[in-house]
Amino acid sequence: MIESWITLTQQAIGLLFSFDSDVWSIIGVSFSVSVTAIIITLLPSLILGFTLAFSRFPGRWFITNLIHTMQSIPTVVIGLLVYLLLTRTGPFGDLRWLFTQQGMILGQMLICTPVLVALSQAAFTSIDRRAWETSRTLGVTRIKAIWILCRELRVPLLLAVIAAFSRILTEVGCSMMVGGNIMGVTRNMPTAIALETSKGDFAQAIALGLVLLILALVLNFTLGALRGKAEPRSH
Predict the structure, then answer these.
(1) What share of the chain is helix, strand, coil (3-state, %, to 5)?
(2) Angle 29-13-16 from CA coordinates, rounded to 5°
(3) Distance between CA atoms of residues 174 and 166, nearest Å
(4) Cβ proximity of 165 and 151 under 8 Å
(5) pTM score > 0.85 for this model?
(6) From CA 21, how far away is CA 130, in angstroms rounded?
(7) 3-state secondary structure at position 186
(8) Nearest CA to 33 among 228, 227, 171?
(9) What angle is formed at CA 223 by the lines to CA 17 and CA 40, rounded to 5 degrees?
(10) Mind giving me the DSSP string for 150-185?
(11) How far apart, in whole angstroms, are the C-alpha atoms of residue 193 and residue 85?
């Protein structure tokens, strides 16, 4: 049994280093979809996080709690919602995004936005409000003042981006329902692992799992290093 697993692992590593077209196509789809979702949602999420942290308006409490609730919704439920929106009889059926990368991006945007908003709101709330008020008093434009705050909070905001990216890159439910797991089009690493394991093709599943494992290690070590830099040093 141990020898068989060693053989499978060797085959998996061979698939990666021989640049197997199927394996690297799956990896490419995963990163393409998830990076696009992060890029689209980043700026609006930061603006909303800033607004919730520094503004007081009717409905702020409701929006904040809605964002926190959305963080805990299973990805398969979000996938079901996006599926119903994009299906031929749904309100956005004319877009023909079901079983496409565009549909997957939409689903991952809904998954990562609450994470980005909640963590950026927490970051903006942690900073001394007088920094914002002083910038405005000195005549700095609103956009430039926000940019100054973002530079001061670059470490916690980067942590928010990494956390959101990690969540969408590894989710299965939404991608499976909305993407349809079509080879070369919408099959990403988590859905491919689920499919290949069910088929008994463990070599490819292990290869993709190794990529996710290495990425998880890199992201977690990066998070740890950033947190260490963000913590005040004791003298």
Answers:
(1) 80, 0, 20
(2) 30
(3) 15
(4) no
(5) yes
(6) 55
(7) coil
(8) 171
(9) 80
(10) HHHTHHHHHHHHHHHHHHHHS--HHHHHHH---TTT
(11) 27
**What's the pLDDT at 235?**
45
Give the Å distances, CA to CA, from 112 to 27, 73, 166, 183, 222: 19, 12, 9, 24, 19
Check whether 232 has a pLDDT greater than 60: no
Contact 38, 112 (CB under 8 A): yes
Q: Which residues, other chains included, contact 109 with Cβ-Cβ below 8 Å and sequence gap of 6+?
A: 37, 40, 41
Amino acid at 199: K
Token duo for residue 86: 């994009």
d(CA 2, CA 47): 52
CA angle centred on 39, ends 160 and 84, rounded to 5°: 95
DSSP string spanning 28-89? Answer: HHHHHHHHHHHHHHHHHHHHHHHHHHH---TTHHHHHHHHHHHHTS-HHHHHHHHHHHHSTT
pLDDT, one tens digit per residue, over 131-161 is: 777 777 777 777 888 888 888 888 899 989 9
| First and final C-alpha spacing in the chain | 54
